[in-house]
């Protein structure tokens, strides 16, 4: 892992520290703008953990730069965006994988194994929850973006 990119400066710095602590021996580069990461860091592959409205643009830019891609769902908002991503991947001969990250988390994989191998007996009812998350109670409240949060880069192509 050579670089992280986040429009939130604090999150980007935490990402750098986490990577440096666990993976990197030469200092992880940090970027606020994905275009700079692509141009300067030149990674072999990227993991697109971006807001859904950025998937198509970032994926196409990474594909054009010859970077292999792991992208989150949804692949795109429209058929046109999806087709553009597929065309860029094919044209540039790179590997693309769309994944549901949750399916890769150890506790979810272990739960599936327990069911598949009969360790729980016959399963007749399942309730599932998700990790914490955002509270939507204050969604009506408008406020300025926090210092260090590059809102224009987060908003990007969103309407």
UniProtKB/TrEMBL annotation:
GO molecular function, one term: nucleotide binding
Ranges where the Gfo/Idh/MocA-like oxidoreductase N-terminal domain occurs: 17-98
The keyword Ribonucleoprotein is assigned to this record: no
Keyword set includes Signal: yes
InterPro entries associated with the record: Gfo/Idh/MocA-like_OxRdtase_N, Gfo/Idh/MocA_oxidrdct_glycsds, NAD(P)-bd_dom_sf
Gene3D superfamilies cross-referenced by the UniProt entry: NAD(P)-binding Rossmann-like Domain
Protein's name in the database: GFO_IDH_MocA
Species annotation: uncultured Shewanella sp
